[in-house]
Amino acid sequence: MELLGGGGLSRRVNIELEEPVSWIAGLAAVTFAWGGLSVLNPQFYISPSFIAVLAGFVLHEAAHKIVAIRMGMKSEFVAYGPGLLVTFLSGIIPFIVVLAPGYVRSVYTGWTSPKGFFYSVVAGPSTNILLALASLFLLQASPPLELARYLSAMVEVNAWFAFFNLLPISPLDGSKILRASPTVWAAMFIVSAVLVVS
């Protein structure tokens, strides 16, 4: 994929970074995209919304990877040039936040569960749904105000993470899940939509 014109420049942008550099670059991009110039303020790093974004992003990608490995695949988080660029740029464009610095690449090696890829794809948005539901459940216990702020952020951010990733648009998780199992996709999409409006 060529994002920018000019062969040499597009090739430099269309790079892929592997672990552990991919995690460093990806987290840096997500941090700047969410905070913009607020990243210069130390208080930003303990704000409820940033903690929720960090947890939602890391656990989403980690779930893809862990399940893929358990299913017998080789898996790693890959940061790629166009995604990093768009994610960084969204940190300076008002009202637009794109958190897509990379993806989990899973490769079949030797023995692999027949549904391994499907399970690994489902794992990402499922993790966000579970985080949102768990936080919503804890909110019912009327926790202290400060904790409630963090739990509310976890519900909102992870509900949106799940909903966005479940949109049936390639290359999002939703398109892959819908092709493999429309029933599973519909159930997950409805739950995420209900959480978004809750």
Question: Your description of this structure?
Answer:
The chain is mainly alpha-helical. The chain has one domain (7-197). The chain has eight helices and three strands. The protein has a three-stranded antiparallel sheet. α3 (48-70) crosses α6, α5 (116-139) runs antiparallel to α6 (145-165) and α5 packs across α7 (173-180). It is globular, with a radius of gyration of 17 Å. The N and C termini lie far apart (38 Å). The model is unreliable at 1-11 (pLDDT under 50).
List the helices and strands and how they pair.
Blueprint (H helix, E strand, L loop, with lengths): L6 H7 L2 E2 L3 H15 L12 H23 L2 E8 H9 L12 E7 L7 H24 L5 H21 L7 H8 L1 H16 L1
Antiparallel strand pairs: 1-2, 2-3
Helix pairs in contact: 2-3, 2-4, 3-5, 3-6, 5-6, 5-7, 5-8, 6-8, 7-8
List keywords for this structure.
198 residues; 9% strand; three-stranded antiparallel β-sheet; single chain; mainly alpha; 8 helices
Order of helices and strands: HEHHEHEHHHH
By helix and strand content, what is the structural category? Answer: mainly alpha
What is the quaternary state of this protein? single chain
What strand order characterises the main sheet? Answer: 1-2-3
The mean pLDDT is 90
Q: Which sheet architecture does the biggest sheet show?
A: 3 strands, antiparallel
What percent of the residues sit in helical stretches (DSSP H or I)? 55-70%
Beta-strand share of residues: 5-15%
The total of beta strands comes to 3
- Please give the count of helices: 8
Task: List low-pLDDT spans.
Answer: 1-11
Q: Roughly how many Å apart are the termini?
A: 38 Å
* Overall form: globular
- Count of discrete domains: 1
CA gyration radius, whole angstroms? 17 Å
